[in-house]
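As a warm-up, study this chain.
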Amino acid sequence: MGIRTFFKRLFKPSGKPPQPKRRSRRMEREYAVIGLGKFGRSLARRLDLLGLTVAALDIDPRKTRLLADDVSSALTVDTTVESALREADIESCHTVIVAIGGDNFEASALTTISLAKMGIPNIIALANSPRQEDILLSIGAHRILNPDEDSGLRLADELADPGQGENWALDNNTQVALVQAPKGMVGNAVADCAALGISVLMVYRDSETLLHPAEDVVFMPADQVLIVGSAGNVRAFRLLE
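Now compare it with the structure written out below.
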């Protein structure tokens, strides 16, 4: 496709705006990652590791085969074609990440346009320059990221738990996180965290800092707790009721 044809498609009026669709709770927890380079692979695997339903799409069958056993579904799709996206049931997803990187900005833009036409509520795209960022935002992306593997891991953690506090990835499956003492742990002791796969490094309580707190320290509602554990265990700890 020539550059002139590309921009004709880019700015072609889409007719009537898509009608908003009612989305179920199940739909709000479904994700798709389009483009399975380094960023896309790390993101898709992390989302699956965190227990979320994720579809991984790429035009290259070799890349989809690499992820076939790691995610809910891995599909070989030309995502620049709107009808192909519909056949892949992309409309069932609440969040779609367009992780098409490298020099293939045309494919990224066309994919973003199609997703916007379909009314996907949350479209996140990669951009390699401020100019690309401006274009993607103008054609329907809701958020722009820079393409690196670490940002893929951070994005997965954020999508899995939008209310999370500060956290830092030590490796692909270990996190340090600063969290509010969860309701389910208030009144329980630091020692109880071991059974949950969580180590407590520090407790911040008013103006007091408890470094390596004793096992008999009991959590209070206003405590801020610095913990370390696997990504799944950290998320489960934070959500304890």
